[in-house]
Design goal:
Length: about 160
């Protein structure tokens, strides 16, 4: 039951440069014996994270995707709520946490916003819960990548406090 395609299907061409995966040689003419390699590069991230079906069967090219690109997930694994999807392939995730004040022996609510790269394998919208994994710096502010996605169940406000 392999879902990986053996024939080459051209990737979505919506950029100025020709889009192709670095690990796949497109101009291969023949196969030697039965050594049929798949025509789409997909890898297992590890850490108990399943590769989404859209990454295996899709025809997008994203060099910053942890499943089809050249990015490894290492370091922290966090959860948060999406508050903005206005950028191209980048989302803003809000993480709520409690900070203890020893003088008053009480907790205060705090939050932090994290810029996260979102692969086209995930169709996310504001309010969804995502699991993000730390990776190498992808841009000036982006150091995390989406590795799992849970659709929004309960409609809540944009700034409502929720711990995970």
């Amino acid at each position: 039951m392999t879902r990986i395609t053996r024939d080459y299907v051209e990737c979505d061409q919506n950029e100025k440069a020709y889009q192709k995966q670095d690990a796949i040689f497109i101009a291969r003419k023949r196969t030697i014996a039965n050594k049929d390699k798949p025509m789409r590069f997909v890898k297992n991230v590890g850490l108990g994270i399943k590769t989404p079906a859209a990454a295996i069967e899709g025809n997008f090219v994203d060099k910053k995707c942890p499943f089809t690109g050249n990015v490894s997930i290492r370091g922290r694994i966090l959860k948060g709520r999406i508050i903005s999807t206005k950028m191209k392939r980048t989302i803003i995730v809000r993480r709520d946490y409690l900070h203890y004040i020893t003088k008053y022996r009480r907790f205060e609510k705090r939050h932090t916003n994290i810029a996260v790269h979102c692969s086209p394998a995930f169709s996310v919208k504001e309010g969804d819960i995502v699991t993000i994994g730390q990776c190498r710096p992808l841009s000036k502010t982006v150091r995390f990548n989406v590795v799992a996605h849970e659709p929004q169940r309960v409609v809540a406000g944009k700034k409502s406090f929720r711990t995970f």
